[in-house]
Amino acid sequence: MMIERYTLIDSIQTEEFYEEFYDVARSYYIEFVEDIIGNDSSNSNLFSWYEHNLTLHFIHKQSDVNSVPPVIFATKNVGSKVRVYDAIHETDNFLDRKERSPKKVLSILYNKDIENLPDSQEVIESSVFHSIVNDFPKIFSSNFVEEEYKKSIESLQIKPVELLEFDKTQIHFDLYNFEDMLKTIDNKQFTAELLECVNAYNNQQFFVSGAGLGSVIEHLLFLILERHNLIDRNFPKNPTHRDYITHLRKEPIQIDHRSKSYIDSLFIQRNSISHYNKGFSSKSVCDQMFQGIKNIYDNYY
């Protein structure tokens, strides 16, 4: 199927058309992201659609040029590639037809009685798109990637969103790598600590996330020692990471010098995170600490 210009602007289409739009837009999105990050996959989670399937929502509205251009936006996957909504009748009035700002248009639509819209806080802000001229998948994806890139290089302060509360998550870290670990450990406190770090990381609060990850690593080491019956009377009430290393050298774990050096490096990385570090350098440290948690679990739990 060929995605023709103005097709979406002229009228509501078949579901197959929107799914084709999705596939074409996704291909362009990946291409644009790879132009930015190159071979540095550690920064791929700055871009929400790169590693994860999203759902695209199309809300057709009336315009002031006798067309029905859709507002397009993305959310986390809700079980389908696309959802299409007809708000043409609801927006057939002077003020609604005149509004062009994508976020204001979407805010207006959320104040209409439109069924089955996702919660506004699930809307990925960078994806919101509306044009009465261009409805190409390439244009949508170009705008989406550009907005996410701009956010990644701004300061860590998140600006308030106009009119609606959108999903302000700036990084899209997925817990899929830790699902088995959390299920196996089955410790509510440990899970809560890790989730807090992920939430801070996703909002570019790398100092907060890094500091918390140090505590998560210590908690994981304690759980490992406890699992292997290595918590004895000599274990201090307020252990340092040196105390953990000392006990990890005992049977049945008996870490070697290389493993000791690796665990030491994780704590050094935690201490290296500073309020004044550049964003990407702090992010890189957090990435390594998340990977360190996974490695420690895989090797010793």
Secondary structure blueprint with pairings:
Blueprint: H1 7-10, H2 15-37, E1 54-60, E2 70-76, E3 82-86, H3 94-98, H4 102-110, E4 129-130, H5 137-153, H6 179-185, H7 188-202, H8 206-227, H9 241-248, H10 257-272, H11 279-300
Parallel strand pairs: 1-3
Antiparallel strand pairs: 1-2, 2-4
Give an overview in words.
The radius of gyration is 24 Å and the shape is elongated. By secondary structure, the protein is α+β, with helices and mostly antiparallel strands. It is 49% helix and 7% strand. A 4-stranded mixed sheet has the order 3-1-2-4, with helices on both faces. The N and C termini lie far apart (52 Å).
Observed structural traits:
single chain, 301 residues, alpha+beta, 4-stranded mixed β-sheet, 11 helices, 7% strand, elongated, disordered N terminus
- Quaternary state of this entry equals single chain
Report the uncertain regions: 1-6, 155-164
Biggest sheet, spatial arrangement of strands: 3-1-2-4
- What's the Cα radius of gyration? 24 Å
- Number of β-strand runs: 4
* Count of helical stretches: 11
How many angstroms separate the termini?
52 Å
Can you tell me the overall shape? elongated
Output the helix-strand order.
HHEEEHHEHHHHHHH
Task: Estimate the strand proportion.
Answer: 5-15%
**Residue-averaged pLDDT:** 80
Structural class: alpha+beta
Please outline the major beta sheet. 4 strands, mixed
Secondary structure: helix percent = 40-55%
